[in-house]
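INFO batch 0412 | record 1 of 1 | parsing
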Amino acid sequence: MSDEMALPGATTIGMVCKDGVILAAEKRYSWGYFIMSKTAKKVFKITENIGAACAGLIGDMQVLTKTVRAHVNLRSYEREQRTTVRSAAKIMSNMLFERRYIPLLAQTIIAGVDEDGPHLFVLDPIGSVIEDRYASVGSGSEIATGVLESEYNANMTVEEGKKVVIKAAKSAGARDVGSGNVLDILVIGKDQSQEETVKLA
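INFO prediction complete | emitting tokens
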């Protein structure tokens, strides 16, 4: 088995809409050709207005998001104000960069809504940060990105965006052995967040 085939598969998607952000990841957790679980959670709340969706090793995702959540909550408590999405992404970036010689194997999309509106940032395992309107990471990302490229519209609502995200995840699941089954979706608006699960097949 090659090194490439030994990596865990996933399709993780993030999108900025005019009234919020969407984070989504399918629940399949595979190792090479073996499906280890169909109930893995790869979408996490950091705060009520910020979330993260990951692709990679589940344990590394959990450590990363729990640690960032603790730092963000401490920062918000000390400053007596909500942490911005950009600040949360920077906290995660610093943590990943500090671990760059023994990195956490997780590609991450962090997104949320703050006083400046909705934002989305993509991070690689060594802490690079790129702001974008939509993104996909994981083994099915190339297929999902093709759908996002053709159907994304910056003026769409989260309800319209969810349909595009589901279509992108279904397309990836149809072609990528590491992706599929069920999709976890986290929608974050200015005043509330909502989680749901959608069957892909």
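INFO post-check: The two ends are 28 Å apart (CA to CA).
INFO record closed
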